[in-house]
Amino acid sequence: MIKKEMIAMLLAGGQGSRLGVLTEKVAKPAVSFGGKYRIIDFPLSNCINSGIDTVGVLTQYQPLRLNTHIGIGIPWDLDRNVGGVSVLPPYEKSGNSEWYTGTANAIYQNLEYMEQYNPEYVLILSGDHIYKMDYEVMLDFHKANKSDVTIAVMPVPMEEASRFGIMITDENGQITEFEEKPEKPRSNLASMGIYIFSWPVLKEALVALKDQSNCDFGKHILPHILDKGGRLFAYEFNGYWKDVGTLGSYWEANMELIDIVPEFNLYEEFWKIYTKGDTIPPQYVAPEASIERSIIGEACEIYGEVHNSVIGPDVRIEKGAVIRDSIIMQHSTIGANAIIDKAVVAEGVTIGDNVELGVGEEAPNVYKPGIYSFGLVTIGENAVIPSNVKVGKNTAIVGVTTSDDYPGGILESGGVILDKKEGEKS
Q1: Which of 30, 163, 221, 310 has its Cα between 20 and 30 A from that of 244?
Q2: What is the mean pLDDT of residues 17-32?
């Protein structure tokens, strides 16, 4: 029988609704990040850099691009005869066919996959965080403490603690209590959603709670193990870690990559971030173009100005266009003399000539004020913006739009244009 010391299960099924129109056609872990990467590249690269060669990727929502991106795992050296990377969508079983309903339910539905490797330890990861972490060091900590479950935690400011699962520990780091998003937190050690389980303990808990609806690690599995007298330890992580779950944090994390000395370095030799690279030609920067503090992807053609922005591969920026503090994803075209200020433009978008994005004063978004904020303009995949229109801040646009969609030639701050056929129903 095959035996692996530790296998990883990567939860990548999330819709990521707080990223608004960016995740309308693609799962959150497959969203572009930092030019040529996708969010899932980070946990996958961490696995291979930590010596883990068996990874199950659990997908559910809009999995097509994620599946194509991962393929058989070649970029991460995960194309193995034994182990490697496996994409695990929900599937029909003889009794019933069910979607994954909670994080632990998704893992439970893949018990057979895990059993075939007979692991000693199982590492559970989320597919939507940006960080570098050596899981081997965390495993050593798990073994040293004879732990049943080790949870990676990060100290957060006390005023933010109520947003997280919070661990209360004794002086040895052993967890005595676990509070899910407490109103009055008694500690600032937040769970990062990274767990190492000793396999027999995980299996017992999953089977015991298999009928629990929406079975979740934080709400059900961890309290169950704690109640049974299990040994749970908190492993403190102090490196860079970013949950890119909101448009603001996603934009911010991209902008931090272009600092002169970035807090998060994509290019370290000893801890590479791997991705599926397409063989495409290099960038072309015209003599009249100017670029300042930006990441420019391969196959881009730049004829205008780019300041403080992250530009994905195969983007064309025409003459006279000025882009500032923005993210432009691959295969997009920015028309001549367009002015783009603090926008997130998804893949395959066409922006006409003389368009201005991010004009005027901020106003709350009329549709989803909690999502479309931070002063950003968010443009969904394959959208078309006609020439000579202006778009205000805290706005969202989806689909092929025409000048009729912009009364008086403007979409005021806080406005939305949503595609009635495909998109979210407004």
Answers
A1: 221
A2: 82
